[in-house]
Specification:
- The chain has one helix spanning 2-19; strands at residues 26-29, 32-33, 39-40, 43-46.
- With 76 residues, the protein is an alpha+beta fold.
- It has a domain at 2-46.
- The longest helix is centred in the first third of the chain and has 18 residues, at 2-19.
C-alpha cells in the first residue's frame, strides 16, 4: 500500500511540475475539411506568444485536455 501511495504521489508531483511550464492561455479551433477531403477534428491550442517552449506539444509539457506528453523539440 505504501508503494501505491508513493507512486501516485510521484506521478502527481511530476504532472504538476510539467504543467507549470505550459502556456495557460488557450483558444479553440473549429473542425474543418482539408482540400484533399481529410476531416480535422476541433482542438484546443496555446495562444501564440513568441516561444515554443510552453506549447502543449513541446518536450517536457503535457496537454491538460488529452493527457498526451509533448514530443517536439522547440526550434528556439
Amino acid at each position: 500500500m505504501k508503494k501505491l501511495v508513493l507512486t501516485v504521489s510521484l506521478m502527481f508531483a511530476a504532472t504538476s511540475a510539467q504543467a507549470q511550464w505550459t502556456n495557460p492561455n488557450t483558444h479553440t479551433s473549429s473542425g474543418y475539411t482539408r482540400s484533399n477531403g481529410t476531416c480535422v477534428q476541433p482542438y484546443v491550442a496555446t495562444n501564440p506568444n513568441g516561444t515554443q517552449r510552453d506549447n502543449f506539444s513541446s518536450t517536457g509539457n503535457t496537454n491538460p485536455y488529452t493527457g498526451a506528453a509533448g514530443h517536439r523539440t522547440p526550434r528556439y
